[in-house]
Amino acid sequence: MNFIRKLQEKKFNCDMKKYEKEAVKTAITWNDDGFNNRNKEICTDLLNFPHVRLWKNKFSIFNDKEDFLEGFDDQTKKLKEEGWDHTVTLDIKVVQSDETKVHLLLHQSRRNSDDIEYHNFHTLWIMTKVEDKWGIQFRSSFLDKASHTKNII
Predict the structure, then answer these.
(1) Long-range contacts formed by 97-101: CB under 8 A, 24+ apart
(2) Nearest one of 127, 88, 120, 137 to 104, comparing CA atoms
(3) Taking a C-beta distance cutoff of 8 angstroms, is the pair 45, 132 a contact?
(4) Residue 82 has what DSSP assignment?
(5) Which uninterrupted H or E stretch holds 134?
(6) Alpha carbons 58 and 149: distance in angstroms, whole number
(7) How many Cα atoms within 13 Å fall on the side-chain side of residue 12?
(8) Which of 66, 76, 107, 131 has its CB 3.0 to 4.6 Å from that of 91, i.e. a possible disulfide?
(9) Nearest to 68 by CA among 137, 146, 142, 143
(10) Nearest Cα residue to 29 out of 54, 53, 6, 55
């Protein structure tokens, strides 16, 4: 684990219950190791299915890992086209929680390869603990750039 990750976890984990810390750690790992590295295995392993995405007031439902991966490469292409290199999580707040569900409000920043922010947004993630595994079950953001969608309803 790198130094920045340790600082992030220390900052985000202050005064949290154990299960909240576990949910936050899952969210950070999904973003830093999965999304930023475009690592399909980490991204799908840290989701719980069905996974729901609300973007531009439309729902996408991903029923399983294969369903989620169908648009993954297309999203990567769109991210690169907009100049994306990585996403930094600036803050995470626990909004509401119990031992099997945690609502997180994330403040994120999309950055280019020079680490210059070009898009700043908030996103709500609902983390669930299913079969003793924390995963992201639902994501909703005010993102107006490239997003991963499927069968929008």
Answers:
(1) 97/17, 97/19, 97/20, 97/23, 98/19, 99/19, 99/129, 100/19, 100/128, 100/129, 100/130, 101/126, 101/127, 101/128, 101/129
(2) 127
(3) no
(4) T
(5) strand 133-141
(6) 9
(7) 27
(8) 107
(9) 137
(10) 6
Residue 117 carries which DSSP code? E
pTM over 0.70: yes
Q: Specify the residue for token string 């799908």.
A: 44
Backbone CA torsion sign across 73, 83, 104, 153: negative
Predicted confidence band at 4 (pLDDT cuts at 50, 70, 90)?
A: low
Give DSSP secondary structure letters for 3-62: HHHHHHHHHHTTT--HHHHHHHHHHHHIIIIIITTT-HHHHHHTEEEEEEEEETTEEEEE
Which residue reads 């600082």 in tokens? 7
